[in-house]
Amino acid sequence: MIRTARSARDTILVTGGAGFIGSNIARAFAADGWRVVVADWLEDGPKWLNLRDILLDDVIRPEAVPAFVEREGGRLHAIVHMGAISATTERDGDKIVARNIRPTLDLWDQCARKGIRFLYASS
Questions:
Q1: Which of 14, 40, 114, 121 is 20 to 30 A from 24 via CA?
Q2: CATH number at residue 55
Q3: For the chain, how many structural domains are there in total?
Q4: pLDDT tens for each residue of 105-114
């Protein structure tokens, strides 16, 4: 990941960035010179978190990311979406829709409307 040009959009938002994979993604972007902000619900506690900027919020709240995007004033280059219920034993379909599917669609829509790059990954 080599950043070749600076722009006004210098921020990467990593949802689920306190988890193992998300925190490593966040560290890689930070090491490459990006300003990284993590959004995480911290449901399981801040296991892997060691970053300066954390948005102590959850992407399941429909207003959370749009409020962040507005506050950043055009600095947001991309959202790397790693936030989700990770328990493979979760059987509550409504909870999965509320915590995984709807937030992903909301983030995707927000990025499309604001011209922000969107990367979704699931382990």
A1: 114
A2: 3.40.50.720
A3: 1
A4: 888 888 898 8
C-alpha–C-alpha distance, residues 39 and 36, integer Å: 10
| Contacts of residue 52, Cβ cutoff 8 Å, sequence gap at least 6 | none
- Look-up of token digits 């207003």: 63
Partner residues linked to 117 by β-bridges: 78
Please tell me what DSSP assigns to residue 101.
I
**pLDDT digit string, tens, across residues 9-60:** 889 999 888 888 888 898 899 889 998 888 887 766 656 555 555 655 555 5
* Environment class of 16 (CB within 10 Å of its CB; exposed 0-12, middle 13-18, buried 19+): buried
With tokens 């509320």, the residue in question is 98
User: What is the four-CA torsion angle of 46, 48, 51, 54, rounded to 10 degrees?
Assistant: -40
Residue 4 is assigned to a structural domain of this protein: no
Task: Supply the pTM of this predicted model.
Answer: 0.79
